[in-house]
Amino acid sequence: MINSSALKWGLCVAVAVVCGCAPAKVTYQASSELERHRMATIAVLPFEVLKTPQYLPTAQAEVPVPEGARRSDISFSIPPSGQPREKEVTVSVPLLAAEKVTGLVLAKVQNREGVRWVRPEEAAAVVRSLGSPERGVTAEKQAWQVASRLGADAALIGRVLVYQERGGSKYGGSPAEVGFEVRLIGPDGVTLWSGNYYERQRPFVEDAIGAFQRGFVFVTADELAEYGAKQIAKQLPVGTPGSR
Questions:
Q1: What's the predicted TM-score (pTM) here?
Q2: CA–CA separation, 170 vs 100, rounded Å?
């Protein structure tokens, strides 16, 4: 008798070959400066969200798209012809999403050996003590100032660009959508490494492997974020995986 799990996996692979590969959910980029720096202590700054709310005309209906995403993945519902149209649409990222993603990423990396992590609460206290950055001081340079004050070799910062909950139930409705970026900042605000995650669940015929991984159901935004944090953490070039 053929194992049902093996049958499902074989079907996924066959469909993936026929339909082509879905866009990469996670992408990474490392600076040539990365190998020059020893990072034994890293300050984790509280992640931010894309500034909200943003009010856009429905005719424009465009938002910043995370790296790796197709603009067609992010859409808005427009009433059929003859029905009243809203003059504006609101695009927002819940403020709580930043705290969630910060915690998820830290949880995935904090057991790495050979590196000490300064928690976001400590970094936030230093940010407050520094006050508003001087004119011309970028977010990256401010992150390095915070890291220096804490005796860290680098800073880990992030920004949540999309965090939209699924509509309906796990068996039907609109898919969840999550996108965020994480960056490792070194001396003078230089970005040593960056990782980007974006996913909006796709139909089986477009992303067979993803559908198999998700159990052929619509998952929540929190579940997508958990997956993204895990994948980002795997590639973060600091320390070594712990034994736990």
A1: 0.75
A2: 21
Residue 97 to residue 221: CA distance in whole angstroms: 10
DSSP 175: P
Q: Could you give the CA distance from residue 218 to residue 86 in angstroms, rounded to a whole number?
A: 28
Fold for domain 22-52+92-235? Rossmann fold (3.40.50)
Cα–chain center distance at 130: 27
Say how far apart CA 211 and CA 217 lie, in whole Å: 7
Q: Where does the chain show beta strands of DSSP type E?
A: 26-30, 41-44, 48-49, 54-57, 88-91, 116-118, 154-164, 167-169, 172-174, 177-185, 191-200
Smallest CA-to-CA distance from 226 within 66, 98, 104, 111 is with 104
Plot region of 20 (φ>0 → left; ψ -120 to 50 → alpha; else → beta): left
Q: Where are the domains of the chain?
A: 22-52+92-235
Per residue in 25-84, pLDDT tens? Answer: 999 999 998 988 889 999 999 999 987 554 544 444 444 445 544 444 443 334 444 454
Query: CA geometry: angle at 164 spanning 158 and 170, to 5°?
Result: 125
